[in-house]
Amino acid sequence: MQDRSPMRARTGAGVAMEEPGRAPRTLSVLGATGSVGTSTLDLVAHHPGRFEIMALTAQSNVGALAELAIAHRARLAVIGDEACYGELKERLRPHGITAAAGAGRGGVHGRRLRHGRHRRRSGP
């Protein structure tokens, strides 16, 4: 069945291109400094107002991650290499973007993200 909604124009591939009156879609881009991540962010840049970047992540390229977070006004930037956290935090502080670090290549199992707004909870 074909979608004939007047609010949605579609390409032949079925990708929504315009949705007047709708809020921007939120995206989190994992591996933002890699080839797929940069291609995704290039697409986002070509459709202003369509997307809001919630979070960007990278393993260790703190400079590129900070630049992308600032350019795309991300709410959160996460660097996998905890040794890069201080530099990321300092670069993003003037822009009001939250920095976090952790997880690394071992995954997030049993680890907490370290970031400026983190508060430890008491109790179990």
Ordered list of secondary-structure elements with their pairings:
Elements: E1 9-10, E2 16-18, E3 25-29, H1 35-45, E4 51-58, H2 62-71, E5 76-79, H3 85-92, E6 98-101, E7 114-115
Parallel strand pairs: 3-4, 4-5, 5-6
Antiparallel strand pairs: 1-2, 6-7
Helix pairs in contact: 2-3
State the CATH superfamily name of the domain at 24-105: NAD(P)-binding Rossmann-like Domain
C-alpha geometry? globular
Instruction: Name the poorly predicted regions.
Output: 1-16, 107-112, 117-124
Q: Proportion of β residues? A: 15-25%
The tally of strands reads 7
Structural class: alpha/beta
Helical fraction: 10-25%
Major beta sheet, strand line-up: 3-4-5-6-7
Number of helices: 3
| CATH third-tier fold name of the domain at 24-105 | Rossmann fold
CATH architecture of the domain at 24-105: 3-Layer(aba) Sandwich
Notes on the structure:
This protein has 124 residues and is of the alpha/beta class. The chain has a domain at 24-105: NAD(P)-binding Rossmann-like Domain (Rossmann fold), CATH 3.40.50.720. Helices cover 23% and strands 23% of the residues. The chain has helices at 35-45, 62-71, 85-92; strands at residues 9-10, 16-18, 25-29, 51-58, 76-79, 98-101, 114-115. The strands form two sheets. The chain has a five-stranded mixed sheet. The longest helix has 11 residues, at 35-45. The radius of gyration is 17 Å and the shape is globular.
